[in-house]
UniProtKB/TrEMBL annotation, chains A, B:
Name of this protein: Pantothenate synthetase
Keywords: ATP-binding, Cytoplasm, Ligase, Nucleotide-binding, Pantothenate biosynthesis
Family of the protein in this entry: Belongs to the pantothenate synthetase family.
Keyword Acyltransferase included in the entry's annotation: no
Quaternary assembly: Homodimer.
Something else known: The reaction proceeds by a bi uni uni bi ping pong mechanism.
Annotated residues for binding of beta-alanine: 62
Molecular function per GO: pantoate-beta-alanine ligase activity
Gene source species: Rhodobacter lacus
Binding sites annotated in the UniProt record for ATP: 31-38, 148-151, 177, 185-188
Enzyme class at the top of the EC tree: ligase
Transmembrane segments: none
Record lineage: Bacteria, Pseudomonadati, Pseudomonadota, Alphaproteobacteria, Rhodobacterales
């Protein structure tokens, strides 16, 4: 039976009883609209923790676009049913006023790794992520936290922040879960039309092709230009970015001389798609 | 026997053994150069915690003035001897590279309460305080933390930050400890000349006189103008501020209609003195 908790004071008491018994708490921070990608994080948490909290909070502070915030899918009953099947202990679903009460005035910001890519196209986004994740770590006092590699840059920002602020939590990155055709699972995929949905897997396919070419010695710029051309011809656009970057620092790379990642953000119809893969 | 620890990894292990036994950890964050003001915090921590950590770290991030940083008094051997007498369990004295290793990129900032007074005269100071205190709470995993009311605005900034980030620590504010003549104890007092030292207690005396006058109905502006005039005549200056403010939010107050505080920052010779009292 998954217990739904909405107040951080009640959560704190729950966690305190677990901690007194020496239990390791795992947390999976989400914005709800759960899919198999999230559930893979939940299963990892279940395996690596004694008690599992899934948080669902559509965090206004990390949306730079009010339309995206308004349209973000929400279905708590469905989410709860999914979490029940995985034996999650607590669904923590606080309201906005619980997370950001009157007088709230604190911001956590990470420079460097948060600045390019998503940071450049979504001003304030990673401040919102870093702040709410710090808060969720405080509220849940989790010893382990599970994040998807789908949001690769977010994972690196969270790792940096946790190291920098000495937060006593271990960050576990989990591989992107894909549909059979390769499309990375995302809560925003439900907003794709049938035609767009049919076209969407090409993003992953072209990223793979580019990564293979780069590994085979093709200059990254040429491989990525070819991918962009193919995707644009198939109806993707406008482009925010399609780049090879250092996997950890997200700094630009011309050659994959250190662990590298291809990262893309591009429109498809009304949806902004993101994806990334290792080179 | 007070154990000196310099690495956060070693501290984490130490704290983990305490936590497994259900012990409550208290922390007193300091910049060293300990005096009776600090020791009153240590004694409060000793009473209210099972284990006590005193941290000594002269935090470069909170100094906006490199000269003040260079001249800040340091005497770890003397500090350690004092802490031994009070039965402190751990002196945590990390180096700068332990607290801010290469690649460090995260900042905690508090708006509102941190902006006027010290915030206006020491740009970046409270970002440095909020960031290092968040780090020290992560490193020590303390359940209680003890701060002096001498740095009144700092205490309010830390309270705001802890509430906002849901850090699981209780903040305990402890009264300012004064010399017999009323001078608030401060590590910077050693930098006063004999003449300045003789003059210094007038700051507290004039604050008291102004508070009494305000409580008796004198308009705050008049009471503070009289105090400033008397202090300037005695050699205090230049003035950063001498104001009545809301005790919690530090917003300006004309009348003490809510808990109010008089706060002063003023030069005396080469030293910048701060003090504050309740109205």
């Amino acid at each position: 039976m998954t217990q739904v908790i909405r107040s951080s004071a009640e959560l704190r008491e729950k966690v305190a009883t677990w901690k007194r018994s020496g239990m390791l708490v795992g947390v999976v921070p989400t914005m709800g609209a759960l899919h198999d990608g999230h559930m893979s994080l939940v299963r990892a948490a279940r395996k690596q923790s004694d008690r599992v909290i899934v948080t669902i909070f559509v965090n206004p502070m990390q949306f730079n676009n009010s339309d995206d915030l308004a349209k973000y899918p929400r279905d708590e009953a469905h989410d709860l049913a999914l979490l029940e099947t995985e034996g999650v202990d607590v669904l923590f679903a606080p309201g906005v006023e619980e997370v950001y009460p009157a007088g709230f005035a604190t911001k956590v910001s990470v420079s460097g790794v948060s600045e390019p890519l998503e940071g450049a196209f979504r001003p304030g986004h990673f401040d919102g992520v870093a702040t709410v994740v710090t808060k969720l770590f405080g509220m849940t006092q989790a010893g382990r936290a599970f994040f998807g590699e789908k949001d690769w840059q977010q994972l690196q920002v969270v790792r940096r922040m946790v190291a920098d602020l000495n937060i006593p939590v271990r960050i576990i990155g989990c591989p992107t879960i894909r549909e059979e055709d390769g499309l990375a699972m995302s809560s925003r995929n439900v907003r794709l039309s049938a035609d767009e949905r049919a076209c969407a897997p090409l993003l992953h396919a072209e990223l793979q092709k580019a990564a293979e070419a780069i590994r085979a010695g093709t200059p990254a710029a040429a491989a990525l230009a070819a991918a962009q051309e193919a995707l644009s011809a198939a109806g993707f656009g406008p482009w925010d970015y399609l780049e090879m970057r250092s996997a950890e620092t997200l700094q630009p790379l011309d050659t994959p001389c250190e662990p590298a990642r291809l990262l893309a953000a591009v429109g498809l119809g009304a949806v902004r798609m993101i994806d990334n893969i290792a080179v």
